[in-house]
Design goal:
With 695 residues, this protein is an alpha+beta fold. 31% of the residues lie in helices and 30% in strands. It has 15 helices and 29 strands. The protein has an 8-stranded antiparallel β-sheet, with helices on both faces. Strands 1-2-3-4-6-5 form a 6-stranded mixed β-sheet. The radius of gyration is 32 Å and the shape is elongated. The chain starts with a strand and ends in a 6-residue tail after the last strand.
Length: 695
């Protein structure tokens, strides 16, 4: 008999079934939120993985199309690689949980989340986040839980907890917050320029709800929790640290890391490592863990320099941003380009415009969204950090960084009605040493403006770091962290936004949560920094969107037709519209409400297509003069095509003022002629005349 636990969460029932399925996993729960059902399991290997110096955690969020009553599209009727949404959900589950496992734990841990059914009003992603935390907390895997996750929307100025699909569609905020008993441990947000104080209030509204869920989880753990198993610790022995300090003094290590050049620092650490290897050549046990020990020695040194001495490795002040540079139009012929440089972080962003028909089609569990008009992609080649490795396509990090920059820019994009284009921006990382995702936001904002996309405002992003001491009050928030401060620090707090407010947040931490004071200080510092970046750097490269799209970008003519006439324009099996496209060299998109977009680079062809469509959808009227091509000759007259699929007949008596014995004497197939509509004849058919055009 399985155990069932229930609570009311935002007006819907959250139910957790324990010992019902997957009993061989270390921990497993069958989660129900409304009609959304997710199986969440946590498993760990019996022994540590050899030869690694990190905790091998793997998180999987598996979407199944049967969960929404669909069969996967395409030829292969089986789910393939994880969707972008699944990858982003993997990351948002991983980020708050990873810091709560022991840092010296080397056993493989896998958190599997299988979506079995979806109620669009009860987020499967949220259900999986809660389920992964509960499954791990009740398991025998060492984990300092529980944690809870809550989503917050903002509808008509009011906060909404775990919003429904309808509420999400009109919400100005999509916020996800994970918490421990005392602190906030993860923040992810997209927002329509939400003011900083309102964002802080939303974060701690979610934190309050999380405490109620944690109390609920405690009841489950009390009844179903397993004792945590022991494990082999891989912590670096203190005696090794003591011996290292005799070979390389703290002052020497500080001198090695105290430089603003990444390559110089890496060379200094290489020399330090060789010195230690030589000193410990006779101790194989120490040599095996020396790389991790050197890393920990660097970490202790950098943290002490920052927290106690207020010294940063590159010599900057605590709130000082590295040297900045911005430029546009560095790449010829593309539709828009920009480059943003911050210290040794450099992003080149290229913007491409296309007709709406090239928007990305989505095949996932979210039935509310089937296409995506704006796409932001991020690439991180190995040369950007001075390394060499083959490119295997985007990994989870690249997908996550691209989605974060995309989320930051969506709120300022023009509507489809105002700017009927599909838009793609690609951030190429030329150099990386800290927060390339936020440099991507800056570069993409400028590239969009350079391409003539009428965005509402520039958007800039910046990242803050954190170094903490032994108490909650002993900490230092750093503006614009570089790679070393990210590696050895406790937080990477990324915030993007405009002058008006925040458009995106992503917070990663390595400790057991943040206090309200730290979060408020980080948000205040990122606002100050991003305003400086926009006003003093980006605006000097480009201060507003260009009035028109560039020379090489496609142009679009819009027109509105009667929806009842769409079939006339498309024709049987697309014959009519394809003929127009072939004749004029344009692309044509028609929506169900009769909005027509004609896209091309040749103005003459675009205008010709517009006229043809206008001719097709306009009813003939007496006195109307038309131009067309002779497509058929009969004994009694000629048929003239005015547009693909639309034609009329000129009787032999209406061809010329002179008597015509044979139509072929005057007309040849393919001739272009002008005719005038005479109205309808006795049989209700339209009659046309060539000889009466002048009149």
């Amino acid at each position: 008999m399985y155990k069932k636990f229930e609570m009311e969460l935002a007006g819907r029932t959250l139910r957790v079934d324990v010992d019902r399925v997957a009993k061989q996993a270390n921990g497993a729960v069958l989660m129900h939120y409304g009609d959304t059902t997710v199986l969440c399991t946590a498993t760990a290997s019996e022994k540590p993985r050899e030869g690694i110096d990190f905790f091998p955690l793997s998180v999987e969020y598996n979407e199944r199309m049967y969960a929404v009553g669909k069969i996967p599209g395409g030829f292969n009727k089986r789910e393939g690689k994880a969707s972008e949404n699944a990858v982003l959900t993997d990351r948002v589950i991983d980020r708050p949980m990873r810091p709560l496992f022991p840092k010296d734990y080397r056993n493989d841990v896998t958190l599997e989340n299988l979506v079995l059914s979806v109620d669009q009003d009860c987020s499967p992603e949220l259900t999986a986040m809660l389920g992964a935390a509960i499954a791990t907390t009740i398991s025998d895997i060492p984990f300092d839980g529980p944690i809870s996750t809550t989503q917050v929307g903002l509808v008509d100025g009011e906060f909404v907890i775990n919003p429904t699909a309808e509420q999400k569609a009109v919400s100005d905020l999509a916020l996800t917050v994970a918490s421990t008993r005392e602190k906030v441990i993860m923040i992810e947000a997209g927002a329509n320029e939400v003011p900083e104080q309102q964002m802080i209030d939303a974060i701690f509204k979610a934190h309050e709800v999380n405490q109620e869920v944690i109390k609920f989880i405690d009841t489950i753990v009390a009844e179903c929790g397993k004792p945590k198993h022991s494990y082999e610790s891989f912590a670096v022995p203190e005696e090794l640290f003591a011996a290292m300090k005799e070979v390389v003094t703290p002052e020497e290590m500080e001198e090695a890391v105290f430089t603003d050049d990444k390559q110089t620092r890496e060379e200094n650490i290489r020399v330090v490592t060789e010195k230690l290897e030589e000193a410990f050549a006779d101790n194989e046990e120490w040599l095996a863990i020396l790389p991790d020990a050197v890393y920990q020695y660097q970490k202790k040194t950098v943290r002490k320099m920052i927290l106690k001495d207020h010294k940063r490795p590159d010599g900057r002040q605590i709130d000082q941003i590295r040297p900045l540079a911005a430029e546009v139009d560095l790449i010829p012929r593309v539709h828009g380009s920009a480059m943003f440089t911050r210290g040794q972080t450099q992003i080149c962003d290229i913007c491409t415009l296309a007709p709406l028909s090239e928007a990305q089609r989505l095949d996932g569990l979210d039935e509310a969204e089937t296409t995506k008009r704006y796409m932001h992609h991020y690439n991180f080649p190995s040369y950007s950090v001075g390394e060499t490795r083959p490119s295997r396509g985007p990994g989870r990090r690249e997908i996550g960084h691209g989605a974060l920059a995309e989320r930051a820019l969506v709120p300022v994009l023009p509507s489809e009605a105002d700017f009927p284009y599909a838009i793609r921006t690609v951030s190429e990382t030329f150099e990386s040493n800290g927060s390339t995702s936020q440099a991507s936001v800056c570069a993409s904002s400028m590239a969009l403006m350079a391409a003539g996309v009428p965005i509402k405002s520039a958007v800039a992003g910046i990242s803050c770091g954190l170094v903490t001491g032994d108490t909650d009050d002993d900490y230092l928030v750093l503006t614009d962290i570089q790679g070393l401060e990210d590696f050895f620090g406790d937080m990477d707090f990324k915030v993007a936004g405009t002058h008006e407010g925040i458009t995106a947040i992503q917070m990663d931490i390595k400790i057991h949560g943040l206090t309200r004071a730290i979060i408020e200080e980080a948000i205040a510092k990122t606002r100050k920094a991003r305003l400086y970046i926009m006003d003093e750097v980006m605006s000097k490269a480009i201060n507003e969107p260009r009035a028109e799209v560039g020379e090489y970008a496609p142009k679009i003519i819009q027109m509105q037709i009667d929806p009842q006439k769409i079939g006339d324009v498309v024709g049987q099996r697309g014959k009519t519209i394809n003929a127009i496209i072939e004749q004029t060299g344009v692309k044509i998109d028609i929506t169900d409400d009769g909005a027509v977009s004609i896209c091309g680079t040749d103005a003459t062809g675009m205008e010709q297509a517009r006229k043809l469509i206008y001719t097709i959808v306009t009813d003939f009227e007496a006195g109307q003069v038309l131009e067309g091509k002779v497509i058929s000759i009969k004994e009694f007259g000629a048929f003239v095509e005015f547009a693909p699929g639309k034609e009329g007949m000129v009787h032999i008596s209406k061809i010329s003022k002179e008597r015509v014995n044979h139509v072929e004497d005057v007309l040849t197939l393919g001739d272009t002629v002008k005719v005038v509509c005479l109205g309808k004849d006795k049989m209700g058919r339209f009659s046309f005349s060539m000889k009466d055009v002048a009149e």
